[in-house]
Design brief:
alpha/beta; Rossmann fold; two-stranded antiparallel ribbon; 5 helices; oxidoreductase; NAD(P)H_dehydrogenase_qn; NAD(P)H dehydrogenase (quinone) activity; Flavodoxin_fold; NAD(P)H-dependent oxidoreductase
């Protein structure tokens, strides 16, 4: 059975991202093992206080998240895009979890990292308030940071991406369409 890590990366306890995660999880549970995390429920120091100079002890939720990454075949992250970037708490999660020795490592004087998360796939689902014609442009910095320079850097295959917006003007019909889209992704574990 496929192992899927599902992250609702909205720091708000109640959000459309949570509804999207719920929709995905309900369907994916039928054919996969789901390890779900809701960022709003995770309590940890977001600051990587000494960078990589010295190890910082992981809080239990971060250690559990790392274990879920290691066991995952597929990683699904659902997040809002705020100001063209990730919410601060989500960025803190990335900083604290994707560490040298866990997600990548260097050997000798070789500047090329050894990718420790090879063999995994991912899907990124972003919600935004940007106009529909501007969604791709607003998401580009986040995709570069999260997909290319984090996930791919560590060996995860290039992400499949869904962009939903503008959220601020979406009616129930549009939101239901997005929920059905994510539900269908959950059905196939994609």
């Amino acid at each position: 059975m496929k192992n899927i890590l599902l992250l609702n990366a909205n720091p708000k306890a109640v959000s459309f991202c949570r509804a999207l995660a719920d929709s995905y999880e309900i369907e994916a549970r039928e054919q996969a093992n789901i390890h779900r995390f809701d960022l709003a429920k995770m309590d940890f120091n977001q600051n990587l206080e000494t960078g990589y100079d010295k190890a910082q002890q992981l809080e239990k939720c971060l250690a559990d998240f790392q274990q879920a990454i290691l066991s995952a075949d597929h990683i699904v992250m659902i997040s809002p895009v705020w100001w063209g970037g990730l919410p601060a708490k989500f960025k803190g999660l990335i900083d604290r979890v994707f560490l040298p020795g866990f997600a990548f490592k260097y050997e000798g004087d070789d500047p090329e990292p050894i990718q420790l998360l090879k063999g995994k796939t991912s899907r990124l689902i972003f919600t935004m308030d940007a106009p529909e014609y501007f969604l791709s442009e607003q998401a580009l910095p986040v995709l570069e940071q999260l997909d290319r320079f984090t996930l791919q850097f560590c060996g995860v295959a290039k992400a499949q991406v869904n962009l939903f917006g503008p959220m601020i003007f979406a009616d129930d019909q549009q939101r239901n369409h997005w929920l059905q889209t994510v539900k269908s992704l959950g059905t196939v574990g994609g």
